[in-house]
Amino acid sequence: MAQREKPPERGSGLEPGAHAITGQLGKTIQRLRKAYNLSLSDLAEQSGVAKSIISQIERNETNPTLATVWRLSQALDVTVERVLASSDEAPFVEKLTRADTPMLQSEDGLCRLAIIGWIKTVEWLQYYDFHAEPGGVLDSEGHQLGSIECLSVLEGELEVEVGGVIETAKAGETLRYRCDRQHVIRNVGGGHAHALMVCLLKAAVLD
Q1: Rounded to whole angstroms, how far apart are CA atoms 186 and 132?
Q2: What single-letter DSSP state applies at residue 8?
Q3: By the 8 A CB rule, do 75 and 97 touch?
Q4: From 168's CA, which of 13, 114, 184, 194 has a CA 20 to 30 Å away?
Q5: How big is the chain by its Cα radius of gyration, in Å?
Q6: Max Cα separation, the chain?
Q7: Beta carbons of 83 and 94 less than 8 angstroms apart
Q8: What's the rounded Cα separation, in Å, for the pair 167 and 148?
Q9: Distances in Å between the alpha carbon of 16 and those of 12, 91, 181?
Q10: Out of 81-95, 144-158, 160-174, 176-190, least confident range
């Protein structure tokens, strides 16, 4: 049976830095979870950490063990150091290695998205480095109402379908479309396709 995390005790003597790290940890876990569109139950299943514990961590109500942090970092595809980093006091210039960049993959395995957006903006602004092999299809459910996605093609030819409307774009062209409903991106060219994808999750609702 998994051991329950102990909530922080009042007057426990934790150094201010420890409180800061714990608080930042909860925010980081929550932002990464939302970036992957994972529910608490999804993350609990993938990490082996109880849903109630993850919820307590996100609300800064518990001090997780290093083993728990490791399991969560593995499930979220980031390093432990990245999860523990307190960005509030970090220098403005930040460098991320390839290992620090989370990756998503389409169901057919032919499309890959590197999450290159800043973790602090993930709730309203997300951007990705998108790659698709010939025939690759990325089928996505709708985001929150009014969300807009911008797809700037850097290489190849991509097709976007939203609400029965289909449009294509080649290298140097950009497609903007509502993504608050099901939307599909397809590589309709004969070779590899590469694009920059930006998603505005709190855009004004269109008429």
Answers
A1: 8
A2: P
A3: no
A4: 114
A5: 19
A6: 65
A7: no
A8: 15
A9: 11, 19, 44
A10: 81-95
